[in-house]
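[Solved] Which block belongs to which protein?

Original post:
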Amino acid sequence: MTARLIRGRLLSFDRRPEGPGDTAAAFYESDGAVLLSRGLIADRGPFDAVARRAPPGVEVIDHRPHLVLPGFIDTHLHMPQAQVVASYAAELLDWLNDHTFPAEMRFEDPAHAARIAGLFLDMLLAHGTTTAVVYCSVHRASTDAFFDAAARRGLRMIGGKVMMDRNAPEGLTDTAQSAHDDSAALIARWHGHGRLGYAITPRFAITSTPAQLDAAGALVAAHPGCHLQTHLSE
């Protein structure tokens, strides 16, 4: 990838602000530049200074007067729910049964999973989200599709196959053992691959038996470098 110089108003945060007046927590440059080289940020600062340090003939992309921000991070997303966003239901379980579970059952098909994974990630990128922590469906194919699409886009993504062995329709349940084995195989294939990380994902207590929660705990113990996500208070 050739070097590029992105010009605009730069804004980023070096630490959590202590209040509305804590401007020292932020970095702001009214006429700034970010130098990209080989897919990485090589320099940032006032445009004139960064331009002098940039390679001769570097491509300049002028975004003025817009802000240039670091990529957003979303810590909780469900890839298989991309097609049912804003579907109405009076209660959570009604929404799951009427909209979400039927949509998730389609992710058994690898072709469908691959298509939605690409659309899902492209939608995130279009809105500035470059990192997310994501639930895939119960199907191993959905998680392979998610990670494959993220790897091809060079994204920093964390995700996992949901583990759910009760209180869900046929076709959306696994077992304690199969969830453990599928998750272990996915960890071996994807965790640490490029910029990807794996999240062990028991969906929530209502959909996982004690045996499956034990299996999730065994995965955490065996793979301490992985992440863990669940719906703790849902």
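(Second protein starts here: sequence line, then its structure tokens.)
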Amino acid sequence: MVVSIQGVEGSFHQAAAIKFFGKKVKVHCCNTFENLVQTVRNGEVDAGIMAIENSLAGSLLPNYKMILESDLQITGENYLHISQNLLVNKNVELEDIKEVHSHYMAILQSIDFLNQYHWKMVETEDTALSAKHIHQYKSKHIAGIGSKLAAELYELKVLAADIQTNKKNYTRFLIVEKRTDSLVIPNANKASIHFHADHKKGSLAKLLTVIAKHDINLSKLQSIPIPGSKFNYSFHADLEFEENIYFVNAMYKIKFMITNLTILGVYQRGKLP
């Protein structure tokens, strides 16, 4: 199994891929999410795994749009606990550190720990790439912030573990594959859809009422600006259900109430760690 990820080896995307597909999964590293989507569409890999939302930072709106326009199919989801760790080469101690290199979000998430010291913060494009460079250049005065997987891959020492301020930090990832009518996910109990609602008073409320009447839990409703419109929005919705027939019946009812309905995927819902 070969899966495209955004970032280099040791990234949280790779950790999510291992958690979902197992330790034998091979990863194809992509610089951008656009490149990731392209590799899946072209059949270069079996699947892709994309971060879609974080419990602290919120949704990655561009990724919703990318999945919709790519015509890929969502075939699964995975929740990963984000643990930030201070990584150094094996002969480095706290008193040796002068700079900390990492993605700005990792620095921000760990700011309470970092503020205890007088280190220079250097923002980089990727947590795992910072770890890789620290290993390559055998840095004696530079630390990174990243995953324990990055520490393992680049032979670094975890000088301080779980340094993130908020310990309840989770990222949700979506698994995407080429769309095919023959691909059926056994025991599917969640679906992602995209639609345009009538901008008349109460139209969205009526839609949500129909969904509720079919014993479906609306776990997410995300508005997305429609390009070129005057503050009109389309919607992404995640629906959870116990039986697939509940979802089928609900879609039959609401298709007369909305336009441009796209079923992005029907899959098994993930479990929070």
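Accepted answer:
You had them paired correctly. Confirming on the second one: The CA atoms of residues 195 and 261 lie 4 Å apart.
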